Amino acid sequence: MPADYFAAHEIDCVKLGFTLDGATYGEDGGEMDVKEFYELLRNGAMPKTFQITPAQALSHIEPFAKEGKDILIIAFSSGLSGTYESYLTAAKEIKEKYPGVEVCVVDSLCASCGQGLLLDYVVKKADSGASLQETVAYAEDLKWHICHYFTVDDLFHLKRGGRVSGTTAAIGSLLRIKPVLHVDNEGHLIAIGKTMGRRKSISALVEKMVELHTLGKDDPIFISHGDCQGDVDYLIGLIKERFGDRKIYVNMIGNVIGTHSGAGTVALFFKGKHR
Fold this sequence. Notes:
Layout: H1 3-9, E1 17-20, E2 23-25, H2 34-42, E3 48-50, H3 54-66, E4 71-75, H4 83-97, E5 103-107, H5 112-127, H6 132-142, E6 146-151, H7 155-160, H8 166-174, E7 177-183, E8 189-196, H9 198-212, E9 221-225, H10 229-243, E10 248-252, H11 255-261, E11 266-271
Helix pairs in contact: 3-4, 5-6, 9-10
């Protein structure tokens, strides 16, 4: 989600980090412009990501506990990171230290703008006057209906993360095979199909939305991308052909997720019957 979203809704956003050429970025480190990051990826940069530690998680939530505020944490997918476990550890310590404070940690099983989409629904639920427990129950139910469908331009980033074999990456790149992937019920990135060529892979994302969506007229559609706005424009055109005018929000994939998905990734997120 863009920084101004967190500011407008008074949400504390904790950034995961990465290292590159001996420098640390993100949590307890510097910042890197996302377009600069993708340019470095295209030129062969090999960043490494890291999760939030329990101590770092504690440092972010304890100030709220000191103020006597209850805390709801929407954590990055446990299928992709140990950050959720770090927040469980920190929450336990907070409850022992501040017995009057409620701390709830939801494993979103989501990533990128999928997590952002879940967050947006949860914020609206909380703003409607729902209690903390009602909001948590809503998030726990809704997360099974946040659909993530995406395609990547370069299979070698998925190969680095162990999602495809080296042979598959090499052959796929030579034959212009583009995978279609999603995030499953365990929060893992899973390949579910493949197409010949870039535009067919983008079209496949829309076909999955046609098949699965449960969108009402006010439900938003989120898109994230790895510095490939032209492909996003094509995707939006396909969505409008099938769904008419919709609330569509676009943001670039952040540097941490981008390390694993690569430049040229296009991802589509929406509410559906199931993942």
